[in-house]
Amino acid sequence: MKKLLLAGKAILGAALIIIFLNSCKNETKQEDPKEVAEDANETKFDSIDSKEDDSQYLVDQAEINLEEIEIGKLAQTKSTNAEVKKFGKMLVDEHTKSASEVSTLAKTKNFTLPTSLTEDGQDKYNKLNEKSGVDFDKKFADMMVDGHEKAIDKIKKAAENAKDADVRQWASNSIPVLTTHLEHAKVLKESLDKK
């Protein structure tokens, strides 16, 4: 009887462990919005590589727009430097306009875009938000120079390599605006580095 009772307890214990492990495995972790958009585009355009590649250009730009808008808002509320606040406002205004243009183009092409800040964008936002005073302003300026250099590289590739004429045109038209942002960020960084 004792052996039967012990065997029953062992089976019950094993069953509970399996249930526990399965419940841990089934925890829903929110997926990164960029990955969700990329997966959706990959599924839609699996047999048409050029559409999948062109969708990636717009996914990347949507990610950049969302990030710049949130970081611009943060700069407006957290900085005490008038030039940083002004640059933050410009980012919000111009990247909101860009986000609208990208969204409209994506809809006409049936591309899926991320609609909220990506994990990477949230990490950048959090790291900047940890700073204050001049440290905040300098980190912001560094991020703007680095971010706009990378954005320009991506947009130039889209302008040269996109198969879709509308995507190429959109990318070509976006280069001057991003270049202006980069130049402004460099001037801001230079003035802040003197402090």
Topology:
Elements: H1 2-25, H2 33-44, H3 49-78, H4 82-109, H5 119-129, H6 133-161, H7 165-193
Helix pairs in contact: 2-3, 3-4, 3-5, 3-6, 4-7, 6-7
How would you describe the overall organization of this protein?
This protein has helices at residues 2-25, 33-44, 49-78, 82-109, 119-129, 133-161, 165-193. It has seven helices and no strands. It has one domain (31-193): Ferritin, core subunit, four-helix bundle (Ferritin, Up-down Bundle). Helix 2 runs antiparallel to helix 3 (49-78). With 195 residues, it is mainly α. It is globular, with a radius of gyration of 23 Å.
Give a quick set of tags describing it:
84% helix; 7 helices; Ferritin; globular; mainly alpha; 195 residues
